[in-house]
Amino acid sequence: MRARVLIRPKAGILDPQGEAVQRALPALGFQGVSDVRIGRLVELDVGDSTQLDAMCEKLLANPLVEDYEVQLLEVQPPSSDADT
What we know:
Layout: E1 2-9, H1 16-27, E2 40-45, H2 52-60, E3 66-73
Antiparallel strand pairs: 1-2, 1-3
């Protein structure tokens, strides 16, 4: 099973990268952008998806300052069309 973990700063936590992007976008001609938050994306294949929350709490995210969201994805088998 493939898992995608989205990790973002919690609301109210300083996000200097997000602030820098938010300030830069209008200078590049992009208007109407607000509340930019920069996070991380971790994709991994796991045999037991019930362990994902523990993985996030212990290593992938810092639960004091970050929120995370786990998405389970179906992994498509490789296509045999590549051989032709």
